[in-house]
Design goal:
Elements (H helix, E strand, L loop, with lengths): L17 E8 L6 E8 L10 E4 L3 E2 L21 E4 L7 E3 L4 E3 L7 E4 L4 E3 L4 E3 L1
Parallel strand pairs: 3-5, 4-6, 5-8, 6-9, 7-10
Antiparallel strand pairs: 1-2
Length: about 130
């Protein structure tokens, strides 16, 4: 029996920019013309992401989140949001309206012991 090793690689491209510049001589004084074309913000895969609140204070403050940043308004199916700060008595204040998706592959919202999630505005489950 032969064994086959299958390796799969997943790539996420975010905030990728392509730039192209062209220079053309138009007269003897060497005047130059440049044109720049940029393409930005496209996603290759829609894979789940774990967002972890590690600070103390407002939800909208990027400094309060791990390297994945503040969860976007719409997360990929199966993503999860963890309120898990190591600061004693940490509090995450949901200072912006936010929607958590439900259904067959929902976004999960987990608040760890010793942490608090304060919702003074709107948290919608749809």
């Amino acid at each position: 029996m032969k064994k086959l090793l299958i390796v799969a690689a997943l790539f996420t491209i975010s905030d990728l920019s392509f730039s192209q510049s062209k220079t053309k001589e138009i007269n003897p004084q060497k005047t130059e013309v440049q044109a720049t074309v940029q393409h930005k913000d496209f996603s290759v895969l829609n894979i789940p992401v774990v967002y972890t609140f590690i600070g103390n204070g407002n939800w909208s403050d990027p400094a309060n989140w791990d390297s994945n940043g503040v969860p976007p308004g719409e997360t990929a199916p199966g993503s999860s949001i963890h309120i898990h700060s190591t600061i004693p008595g940490a509090q995450c204040i949901l200072d912006v309206p936010y929607t958590v998706t439900a259904g067959t592959n929902p976004t999960t919202l987990i608040v760890y012991s010793g942490n608090n999630l304060e919702v003074p505005g709107n948290l919608t489950v749809k």
